[in-house]
TrEMBL record, chain A:
The lineage of its organism: Bacteria, Bacillati, Actinomycetota, Actinomycetes, Micromonosporales. The keyword DNA damage does not apply. The chain crosses the membrane at residues 28-47. InterPro entries: DUF305_CopM-like (IPR005183), Ferritin-like (IPR012347). Pfam families: DUF305. Coiled coil: none annotated. It comes from the Bacteria. Residues 60-214 form the DUF305 domain. Gene3D superfamilies: 1.20.1260.10. Residues 1-20 are annotated as: Disordered. Keywords: Membrane, Transmembrane, Transmembrane helix. This is DUF305 domain-containing protein. Residues 1-12 have a biased composition (Low complexity).
Length: 218, 269
């Protein structure tokens, strides 16, 4: 714009030297504008993922933390069954749950790390879920076994351990699926929803297998 | 410019009547055309130099007198707002990027043994039997092969240091309290622990403060369970202070109480 207008004016006007200065200034201003624009664009590119990634009280962060806790207890129970149970199918399901869910804990903790968040939230557990806080009893999320139930499992062996493990784990999975359904409704973060959907698929098929095994054992 | 025009029209008569004010304005008029061609471009300079010669003193008066504070205040407010939004964004980004170490160090009263005694807080070996610790309650060092279960376990009796230190290595926060701490405060602490993996809690005989929190290499002693620093300590250090990462287990450990550590020969008994 500036360069197309300047030549005719420069020839018509008597003060030539200032026109040249003006043109030089125009070039400098343009270069400056481009430099500032590039910097702003770079800053926006740097800031946008930082400011748009899930925050400390987001449903995604709440899900990652609380599902880690939920999974940690599933691993605890599955390891007990692996050590104490006797039924080949029940102990094999336990091994699958222990290794699979421990792996998922790693994935969820990596999300938190990448989002620059702590494994511990500032809000109460399950606060990310509508009516979630009310579903927590004695610090336990939906489906989680009580301390008494865990002690009972620790004290069981053989067929009794198999039956108790399957009973507790079916309940545990149903609670987990309830939490997964909530995050699928609340989040549009594809990393989170894809992983949550996989958890749901896996836990639903495991519930079916565990119910069949329980029927066989009882 | 267009906003300032009505105000300029209103004030013009008073300016024209006084001869004194015209002089500085004229001075400005002579200086500004020389400057302007370089600044605002050729279009304006051309307009002012062409045919408007006699009116020259009036036009600059418009500029100096047409200052209406409303729009200026508005622009300043918008500018301040924009700057504060950018500033907040920068602040949030900075806070978000503050490491857990920085946040732990900013808790008043915390003792950072990783800085104070780096050798003590190095990853340590398993050791049988009773172990003498230099810090009470211990925050790091050699420990028993069995960890104390730290799946949100609330122990109502003392536990062995040798097992608890192993739990710290796994990223647990261990809350200890004087056995005579009021029950309401014990319950307040237990609510922070129960159901939360990488947390455990037990009474501690001979504690020099009512409550003491431990993570691997860190300790904070407070007088009351309602102290806000307890939550800060847990948020900054739970799992983060783990020597072995977030996927190491707190289950399959010792769930019994008692201050005597289990030896290998006692396994399964």
């Amino acid at each position: 714009m500036v360069t197309t207008e300047t030549p005719p004016e420069a020839t018509a006007s008597p003060d030539g030297p200032t026109r040249a200065v003006g043109r030089r200034f125009g070039t400098v201003a343009l270069a400056l504008a481009i430099a500032v624009g590039l910097l702003l664009g770079y800053a926006a590119g740097w800031l946008t993922p930082t400011l748009t990634r899930p925050g400390d009280s987001s449903p995604e962060a709440g899900f990652a933390r609380d599902m880690t806790t939920h999974h940690a207890q599933a691993v605890q129970m599955a390891m007990l069954e692996w050590r104490l149970g006797s039924d080949r199918e029940a102990t094999q399901i336990a091994a699958d749950i222990a290794t699979g869910q421990q792996g998922e804990i790693g994935v969820m903790q990596t999300w938190l790390k990448n989002w620059g968040l702590d494994p511990t939230g500032s809000e109460p557990v399950m606060a990310w879920m509508p009516d979630g806080a009310e579903s927590v009893k004695d610090g336990l999320m939906p489906g989680m076994a009580t301390t008494a139930e865990l002690r009972q499992l620790e004290a069981s062996t053989g067929r009794a351990a198999d039956i108790l493990f399957l009973t507790l784990m079916i309940k545990h999975h149903l609670g987990g699926i309830h939490m997964v359904d909530a995050i699928l409704k609340l989040s549009d973060n594809s990393d989170v929803t894809e992983a949550a959907q996989r958890m749901k698929n896996l836990q639903q098929s495991e519930v079916g297998n565990m119910r069949a095994a329980l029927d066989r054992l009882q | 410019m267009s906003v300032s025009t009505p105000a300029g029209d209103q004030r013009r008569p008073s300016v024209v009547s006084t001869g004194k004010k015209a002089a500085p304005a004229a001075k400005k008029a002579t200086s500004s055309p020389a400057k302007k061609p370089s600044g605002t471009g050729p279009k304006k300079a051309g307009a002012s130099s062409g045919g408007k010669g006699p009116r020259k003193p009036i036009a600059p008066i418009k500029v100096s007198q047409g200052r209406s504070w409303g729009p200026i205040a508005l622009m300043v407010a918008v500018g301040v707002l924009a700057a504060s939004i950018i500033g907040y964004g920068a602040y949030a980004a900075f806070q978000g990027s503050r490491s857990w170490e920085d946040r732990a160090n900013s808790i008043s009263g915390i003792v950072n043994y990783r800085e104070k005694d780096p050798k003590l807080t190095e990853p340590a070996q398993h050791q049988q039997g009773k172990i003498q610790y230099t810090v009470s309650p211990p925050v790091a060092g050699p420990h028993n092969q069995d960890w104390q279960n730290c799946m949100g376990d609330v122990y109502d009796a003392q536990i062995a240091n040798e097992h608890a230190v192993h739990s710290l290595e796994h990223g647990a926060v261990w809350i200890t309290y004087q056995p005579n701490l009021p029950a309401a405060q014990v319950e307040e602490l237990a609510a922070k622990v129960r159901g939360q993996e990488k947390m455990l809690m037990s009474p501690y005989e001979g504690l020099d403060k009512p409550i003491s929190l431990q993570a691997w290499g860190y300790q904070l002693k407070v007088d009351n369970a309602n102290d806000g620093r307890i939550d800060e300590f847990i948020k900054a250090l739970r799992v983060n202070a783990s020597v072995e990462g977030p996927t190491i287990s707190c289950a399959q450990g010792i769930t019994a109480t008692g201050t005597e550590p289990r030896n290998l020969t006692q396994q399964g008994s």
